[in-house]
Design goal:
heterotrimer, A alpha/beta (about 500), B alpha+beta (about 130), C alpha/beta (about 425), A: about 500 residues, alpha/beta, three-stranded antiparallel beta sheet, about 35% helix, B: about 130 residues, six-stranded antiparallel beta sheet, 4 helices, about 20% helix
């Protein structure tokens, strides 16, 4: 039985271009208080355009209705559980939004005098200190714009340190359970990739690792807990193996929501790692960004951090550009400050004990789901789960129903699906991360939905295969989208001419 | 199912020899494994390729697979129709959806390839192993 | 819940962790605070920054008015708290707005396809350079010294381990625009891309067509960068470019001391499959209704892993949405009028100051501080609660006694006059 949702009126909405009428406008500028300058004479006629062909022309009320109607076509955390594994979809506190919009913070210019930026710099300095404490590392840069950008930064740091020791080395070891960004990052930083197979408990195979680590290996890129939600119990041994050969340990911090206040990567041999403020520290995902990917390092890597670095001079903060060993800039200015503000607000609201409680609740919620769902779905690994658990569709596949179908049917029950088909080492993976946000009531509804779907797969697999049934948009044809890509709107006359 | 006058690779390509030319494609088994094919990336005419090396790739919505050259030689023709109609690879992989024609530089290479019967049993074993 | 799981305490859930990895003490983070205290803390931090100052800083970050609608729309939880729209059936809101965004970026830049956004303008530049490498099969990059200096620093960081040599070519010392002769001298058959910015870092509108002719005659691509998106309300779009890489901060994104912003890459249709980042495409659902979904995903890291076009994972969806609302609200007439106001204000200010360069400029220009250092002028301005311009010596040693100034629609005439008065002393 579907208890969480029932259908309600949901309005259609054309594209804004199809709604446009010539001359309509949604703005009013103040009258110009200086003499008007003729564009063609100031810039040259060949440098100026007549008009922006096809640009929107709608009134203010049409604009607000347009975007509000479209917003109702989205699912969101504000509507309920969003159990995407490895994405940490937790509640985004609204106070974070409010403080990030405070004038003196939101409207500060990156080149304004440092003496007039002390408040922003204090926020950044405080966040750097706290992130170092949470990770057990010695220094932090807030410059990287996202997790993958942090990975890139971290690997460049490793390369720079090894180079300063005489040999940057050739390759990175990456477990087969890793996020796709890891191998893509390795290539961007000029390293070859060697995959490590996971053992039957979903962990790095120590013996294989020991065989693979040699003088050509720059680092191991490890996610801990890994993408199966399993803590690498031999992490200290893993770090020893790498360090013994002069190689480093890079940790992808995507799953830090399982560790904050419980264990610190800096205490288990990690040399450099990134954090995802949009995962662990509650900054909103916003439909796919902006993120922020601070990088934390041990002392040996500190001289190589991106330029500039935040520094103290007497009682003032300042930017230090005198960093001869720095890898350089990874982006303009100093990072996604708006996200830093939100993350610090989240940390302040929780405090040290609250952060630890959040971690425990996240792990509790994942294990609760795991326990109640396990009788109905195949659990490919029996290692203990941390903040997420991974099932497989093995039983349902016998009825022709795959993980992607079960995911779509969950939508009918009022839930966003789990992560589908990842990690790739589990065939038909269903990866569930509830986070600490959810109450028992919401978790119970979700568990009931999964159990109910398991029964539907037995009784009426077609029902699941054709899902979702209750959404305004039914199953979307991704094949045609990829075969004949239409990636922009064109006026009907132009579009039909092109088709002729 | 698998034409007797083709030779096959364990990577699921086929080649049909016509004089000094090899017509190359992917097998029916390969297209089934890939699912709906949405894009085919092929080399330019004039490219020299070596047996066993990457010839191009085929893409489904969520996967990319390399195509390996079953024979060495120079590309003399590319099946341009696949650029706008990649679905032909799902519909007629052994016929209209051939990929490239190669002027063979080492015709004896085809002897190392599988016969239709051998390929059939190879694929059968692979399917049973799932 | 504990009994359902079969454990006695929360601690038991962590009993499998090796004792030596456990943190045996509380985190050294102050106890949790109430909402009121948090707001209070950040208000106090905000008060420590420049408040109530008029500013003439530009240089890649612009102070434009943000229509109220922008914040209203992005504050909706359905946009704010959703993930990347992988499940198209319940993400049509985000997908539709990204499709509109891609369309507007094409209309704005004169390109045929655009991605769903990049981190920012500075990181879009190396992504464009790497894309040009893939398209041309060459590896050398020629970048103009009039491209934003920090963008060039980012390009250098990315290039160092990619086998991508980067060389710079100069600008005309009188006009402040591209030195085409230097470009012709340095370009060769190994050059994958020529990268220019227009309006350039000095605010000057470049001759994109001429740069394109030179690049194309050597088989290289032309990458055109923009940092001030409002200029495209008035300027001829860079239609002769092969790739456009830009920064959208000007479109309702608050300066936020440098981020988050949103970058874009737009290009010709024939290069679409070499473009990095997410792309939304139009299709139909099983009932035949128009629908949108992420497409061409096989270029991306989560499928292609080490063979991906880029390691980029996130885009800047919410920031791109802000820009989309901004473009919708201003629209065809509004963006032009906005650009005209910027042009007029900057030219009004410039007419009262000694200019360093003679080239045509939009809303930024370089002024010389005769007899005084830019720092001295800025200090005198600060006394009047005015933040002056960016001294250029830091980036261009040859441009001492020069500062980069910007005026926008938010620069009031009285402040423009006060600025000119202090400058002229």
């Amino acid at each position: 039985m579907i208890r969480k949702v029932r259908q309600h009126i949901n309005q259609n909405e054309p594209l804004v271009f199809e709604n446009s009428s010539p001359g309509k406008r949604g703005y009013q500028l103040p009258p110009l208080d200086v003499p008007a300058v003729d564009a063609a004479s100031a810039l040259g006629a060949k440098n100026t355009r007549e008009q922006i062909e096809g640009f929107p022309e709608v009134s203010e009320v049409e604009a607000i209705r347009h975007f509000t109607r479209l917003s109702t076509h989205n699912y969101a955390i504000d509507l309920g559980l969003y159990p995407l594994g490895s994405c940490t979809m937790k509640y985004n506190p609204r106070v974070n939004e409010q403080v990030a919009r405070i004038d003196g913070l939101a409207w500060g210019h990156p080149y304004q005098p440092e003496s007039l930026s002390q408040g922003i710099l204090e926020v950044m300095g405080t966040l750097e200190r706290i992130l170092a404490e949470i990770t057990g590392m010695d220094a932090v840069t807030l410059q990287p714009a996202a997790g993958a950008h942090g990975e890139f930064t971290g690997i460049l740091l490793i390369r720079a340190l090894l180079e300063s020791r005489g040999n940057p080395r050739k390759k990175l070891l990456i477990p087969d359970s890793a996020h796709g960004t890891n191998p893509a990052t390795a290539i961007t930083a000029g390293y070859a990739v060697e995959n490590i197979k996971s053992n039957d408990r979903g962990m790095v195979d120590i013996e294989q690792l020991a065989r693979l680590v040699d003088e050509d290996v720059a680092a191991l890129m490890i996610t801990n807990p890994n993408t199966l939600g399993v803590f690498e119990e031999n992490i200290n041994r893993i770090a020893e193996i790498l360090h013994a050969k002069g190689a480093m340990v890079y940790m992808d911090g995507a799953n830090m929501n399982a560790l904050v206040g419980i264990a610190r990567p800096g205490d288990f041999g990690v040399d450099v790692m990134h954090l995802n403020l949009h995962k662990t520290f509650s900054t909103p995902h916003g439909g796919g960004g902006p993120g922020s990917g601070p990088v934390a390092v041990k002392k040996a890597l500190e001289p190589f951090l991106p330029t500039p670095r935040l520094a103290r001079a007497g009682d003032q903060w300042k930017w230090n550009y005198d960093l001869p060993q720095s890898i350089g800039r990874v982006r303009a200015f100093y990072g996604n400050i708006g996200m830093h503000i939100r993350a610090l607000a989240y940390i302040m609201a929780h405090g040290g004990a609250g952060l630890r409680n959040a971690t425990m609740d996240a792990v509790l919620n994942a294990n609760y789901i795991r326990t109640l769902v396990a009788p109905y779905y195949d659990l490919p690994l029996n290692a203990p789960s941390m903040h997420e658990c991974v099932f497989s569709d093995q039983r349902q596949a016998k009825r022709g129903v795959r993980t992607g179908d079960i995911a779509k049917r969950l939508i009918d029950y009022g839930f966003h699906p789990y992560t589908v088909s990842f990690p790739m080492i589990v065939h038909g993976a269903m990866m569930i991360e509830p986070t600490e946000t959810e109450s028992k009531a919401e978790l119970d509804l979700f568990v009931d939905a999964l159990i109910s779907i398991a029964k539907e797969v037995e009784d009426d697999p077609e029902l699941v295969l054709k899902a979702p049934h209750n959404t305004r948009t039914s199953r979307v044809d991704e094949v045609t989208a990829a075969r004949r890509p239409i990636v922009r709107w064109k006026p009907r006359s132009v579009a039909s001419q092109a088709a002729d | 199912m698998y034409p007797a006058n083709f030779r096959y690779t364990k990577e699921h390509e086929w080649v049909r020899v016509e004089g000094d030319t090899g017509v190359v494609g992917i097998t029916d088994h390969a297209q089934k494994e890939l699912g709906d094919i949405v894009y085919v990336d092929l080399p330019k005419v004039g490219t020299r390729i070596e047996q066993g090396k990457t010839l191009g790739s085929v893409e489904s919505v969520k996967a990319v697979s390399d195509i390996y050259a079953p024979v060495s030689g120079e590309i003399i023709e590319v099946n341009d129709a696949l650029a706008t109609a990649p679905e032909k690879l799902n519909e007629d992989p052994h016929g209209a959806a051939w990929l490239v024609k190669i002027k063979l530089s080492a015709p004896e290479e085809t002897k190392q390839l599988l016969s239709a019967g051998d390929y059939q049993s190879y694929v059968g074993a692979e399917e049973a192993g799932h | 819940m504990l009994s359902a799981i079969g454990v006695k305490s929360l601690e038991d859930l962590f009993s499998h962790l090796p004792p030596e990895v456990r943190l045996g003490r509380p985190l050294d983070v102050a106890p949790g605070k109430s909402e009121y205290e948090i707001v209070d803390y950040f208000r106090a931090r905000g008060d420590e920054n420049a408040n109530g100052y008029a500013s003439f800083l530009g240089a890649g970050v612009y102070h434009h008015y943000r229509p109220v609608l922008v914040d209203t729309v992005v504050s909706r939880g359905e946009f704010l708290t959703s993930y990347t729209p992988y499940q198209a059936e319940i993400a049509q809101g985000t997908l539709t707005t990204i499709f509109e965004f891609q369309t507007m970026i094409c209309q704005l830049t004169g390109m045929e396809v655009a991605n769903a956004s990049m981190y920012d303008g500075s990181t879009a530049v190396p992504e464009a350079a790497m894309m040009a490498m893939r398209v041309t099969g060459r590896d050398r990059i020629l970048v103009s010294r009039t491209v934003h200096p920090e963008y060039r620093e980012v390009l250098a960081t990315y290039a160092q381990h990619q086998g991508m040599p980067v060389a710079e070519f100069g600008y005309q010392r009188d006009a402040g625009s591209l030195d085409m002769a230097d470009l012709e001298k340095q370009i060769d058959g190994e050059t994958a891309a020529v990268i220019i910015q227009s309006p350039n870092f000095f605010g000057i509108v470049e001759d994109v067509r001429r740069a394109a002719e030179i690049a194309h005659s050597h088989g290289a691509l032309l990458v055109v960068v923009f940092a001030e998106a409002v200029s495209l309300g008035l300027l001829e779009p860079p239609r002769d470019a092969d790739i456009v890489a830009g920064e959208l901060q000007s479109f309702a994104i608050s300066p936020s001391y440098g981020g988050p912003f949103a970058g874009i890459i737009a290009t010709k249709e024939k290069f679409m499959r070499q473009m990095p980042g997410r792309i939304v495409g139009e299709t139909k659902d099983s009932r035949g209704n128009r629908a949108f979904c992420l497409t061409l995903a096989t270029r991306e890291q989560h499928i292609r892993r080490e063979k991906a076009t880029s390691n980029i994972c996130t885009n800047q969806a919410l920031i791109a949405l802000m820009a989309t609302v901004f473009m919708t609200v201003y629209g065809k007439e509004g963006l032009r009028e906005l650009a005209e106001q910027n042009l007029s204000k900057a030219h009004y200010l410039a007419s009262q100051l000694p200019l360093r360069f003679s080239g045509p400029f939009f809303n930024e220009f370089v002024a010389t501080t005769n007899g005084r250092s830019p720092e001295q002028v800025n200090q005198a301005l600060l006394d009047q609660k005015i933040i002056g311009g960016l001294p250029l010596k830091r980036f261009y040693p040859e441009l001492d006694n020069s500062m980069l100034l910007c005026a926008t629609e938010t620069s009031k005439r009285e402040k423009l006059d006060a600025m000119a008065e202090v400058f002229g002393r």
